[in-house]
Specification:
Blueprint (H helix, E strand, L loop, with lengths): L10 H11 L6 H12 L7 H5 L2 E8 L1 H7 L5 H13 L3 E7 L2 E9 L8 H8 L20
Antiparallel strand pairs: 1-3, 2-3
Length: 144
Protein backbone atom coordinates (compact mmCIF):
# COMPACT_ATOMS: atom_id res chain seq x y z
CA UNK A 1 0.00 0.00 0.00
CA UNK A 2 1.44 3.44 -0.88
CA UNK A 3 2.56 5.50 2.07
CA UNK A 4 -0.12 8.15 1.39
CA UNK A 5 -2.91 5.55 1.72
CA UNK A 6 -1.73 3.89 4.92
CA UNK A 7 -3.98 4.26 7.93
CA UNK A 8 -2.39 6.61 10.44
CA UNK A 9 -2.19 4.96 13.86
CA UNK A 10 -1.94 6.57 17.26
CA UNK A 11 1.68 5.89 18.35
CA UNK A 12 0.69 5.45 22.00
CA UNK A 13 -1.80 2.76 21.08
CA UNK A 14 0.81 1.04 18.89
CA UNK A 15 3.24 0.93 21.84
CA UNK A 16 0.53 -0.48 24.13
CA UNK A 17 -0.37 -3.11 21.51
CA UNK A 18 3.31 -4.06 21.00
CA UNK A 19 3.64 -4.62 24.72
CA UNK A 20 0.31 -6.46 24.98
CA UNK A 21 1.38 -8.91 22.27
CA UNK A 22 4.73 -9.72 23.91
CA UNK A 23 4.94 -13.08 25.68
CA UNK A 24 3.84 -12.86 29.33
CA UNK A 25 7.07 -14.44 30.58
CA UNK A 26 9.32 -11.96 28.76
CA UNK A 27 11.55 -10.17 31.31
CA UNK A 28 11.44 -6.39 31.54
CA UNK A 29 14.88 -5.82 30.05
CA UNK A 30 13.89 -7.77 26.92
CA UNK A 31 10.59 -5.88 26.67
CA UNK A 32 12.59 -2.66 26.79
CA UNK A 33 14.90 -3.98 24.06
CA UNK A 34 11.95 -4.81 21.77
CA UNK A 35 10.59 -1.29 22.25
CA UNK A 36 14.07 0.12 21.48
CA UNK A 37 14.23 -1.98 18.31
CA UNK A 38 10.82 -0.66 17.27
CA UNK A 39 11.91 2.92 18.02
CA UNK A 40 14.69 2.55 15.45
CA UNK A 41 12.63 0.58 12.92
CA UNK A 42 12.56 1.46 9.26
CA UNK A 43 8.86 1.61 8.59
CA UNK A 44 5.33 1.49 9.88
CA UNK A 45 3.38 -1.34 11.44
CA UNK A 46 0.30 -2.32 9.48
CA UNK A 47 -3.07 -1.89 11.15
CA UNK A 48 -4.23 -5.28 9.84
CA UNK A 49 -1.26 -7.04 11.45
CA UNK A 50 -1.75 -5.40 14.84
CA UNK A 51 -5.46 -6.09 14.67
CA UNK A 52 -4.72 -9.79 14.09
CA UNK A 53 -2.15 -9.88 16.90
CA UNK A 54 0.97 -9.93 14.70
CA UNK A 55 4.07 -7.74 14.97
CA UNK A 56 6.49 -7.62 12.03
CA UNK A 57 9.13 -4.98 11.36
CA UNK A 58 12.72 -4.61 10.25
CA UNK A 59 15.34 -2.40 11.83
CA UNK A 60 18.93 -1.43 11.04
CA UNK A 61 20.59 -0.27 14.24
CA UNK A 62 23.93 -0.31 16.01
CA UNK A 63 24.16 -1.94 19.43
CA UNK A 64 25.50 1.38 20.74
CA UNK A 65 22.23 3.07 19.70
CA UNK A 66 20.19 0.43 21.52
CA UNK A 67 22.45 0.76 24.56
CA UNK A 68 21.92 4.53 24.64
CA UNK A 69 18.14 4.12 24.30
CA UNK A 70 18.06 1.56 27.13
CA UNK A 71 20.59 3.44 29.31
CA UNK A 72 22.95 0.48 29.26
CA UNK A 73 26.68 1.20 29.50
CA UNK A 74 27.99 -2.13 28.19
CA UNK A 75 27.33 -2.67 24.47
CA UNK A 76 28.01 -6.40 24.90
CA UNK A 77 24.96 -6.54 27.14
CA UNK A 78 22.82 -5.29 24.22
CA UNK A 79 24.29 -8.00 21.99
CA UNK A 80 23.31 -10.57 24.62
CA UNK A 81 19.79 -9.16 24.84
CA UNK A 82 19.35 -9.37 21.07
CA UNK A 83 20.71 -12.90 21.06
CA UNK A 84 18.28 -13.86 23.81
CA UNK A 85 15.39 -12.39 21.80
CA UNK A 86 16.55 -14.46 18.85
CA UNK A 87 16.68 -17.62 21.00
CA UNK A 88 13.13 -16.91 22.16
CA UNK A 89 12.00 -16.58 18.53
CA UNK A 90 11.08 -12.89 18.68
CA UNK A 91 13.88 -11.90 16.32
CA UNK A 92 13.34 -13.97 13.20
CA UNK A 93 16.54 -12.96 11.40
CA UNK A 94 19.72 -11.06 12.18
CA UNK A 95 22.64 -10.03 10.01
CA UNK A 96 25.35 -7.42 9.96
CA UNK A 97 25.56 -4.65 7.39
CA UNK A 98 27.87 -1.70 6.91
CA UNK A 99 25.21 0.53 8.56
CA UNK A 100 24.66 -1.63 11.65
CA UNK A 101 22.82 -4.78 12.56
CA UNK A 102 19.73 -5.69 10.56
CA UNK A 103 17.07 -7.40 12.64
CA UNK A 104 13.72 -8.73 11.51
CA UNK A 105 11.38 -8.76 14.49
CA UNK A 106 8.36 -11.00 14.15
CA UNK A 107 6.04 -12.35 16.79
CA UNK A 108 2.42 -13.30 17.27
CA UNK A 109 0.51 -12.64 20.46
CA UNK A 110 -0.50 -15.85 22.21
CA UNK A 111 -3.92 -15.92 23.82
CA UNK A 112 -4.39 -12.24 23.09
CA UNK A 113 -7.74 -10.83 22.15
CA UNK A 114 -8.03 -10.16 18.43
CA UNK A 115 -9.43 -6.70 17.95
CA UNK A 116 -12.41 -6.06 15.76
CA UNK A 117 -11.92 -3.45 13.08
CA UNK A 118 -14.36 -1.08 14.80
CA UNK A 119 -12.75 -1.22 18.24
CA UNK A 120 -9.26 -1.12 16.79
CA UNK A 121 -9.79 1.90 14.61
CA UNK A 122 -11.85 3.72 17.23
CA UNK A 123 -8.78 3.57 19.49
CA UNK A 124 -6.06 4.24 16.95
CA UNK A 125 -7.13 6.87 14.47
CA UNK A 126 -5.29 10.11 14.68
CA UNK A 127 -7.90 12.79 14.38
CA UNK A 128 -7.27 16.31 13.21
CA UNK A 129 -5.84 18.43 15.95
CA UNK A 130 -8.61 20.08 17.97
CA UNK A 131 -8.69 23.84 17.90
CA UNK A 132 -7.07 25.21 21.02
CA UNK A 133 -9.01 27.69 23.12
CA UNK A 134 -7.83 31.28 23.14
CA UNK A 135 -5.13 32.03 25.67
CA UNK A 136 -6.23 33.55 28.95
CA UNK A 137 -5.70 37.22 29.65
CA UNK A 138 -2.86 36.35 32.04
CA UNK A 139 -0.69 35.73 28.99
CA UNK A 140 -1.60 38.85 27.05
CA UNK A 141 1.14 41.33 26.28
CA UNK A 142 0.50 44.64 27.95
CA UNK A 143 1.98 47.65 26.22
CA UNK A 144 2.84 50.89 28.01
Amino acid sequence: MPKEQQERLNPKFVLRRLSELMPDDLPGHLRETLIALYAYSNGFLRAEDLEAGRVDFQVTVAHSQLAKFCHVKDIRSMRRRCEELRERGLIAAAKKSNKGNVYTVSYQGQGVETLSAESYFDNTRVEDEPELPAMSSAFEIIED
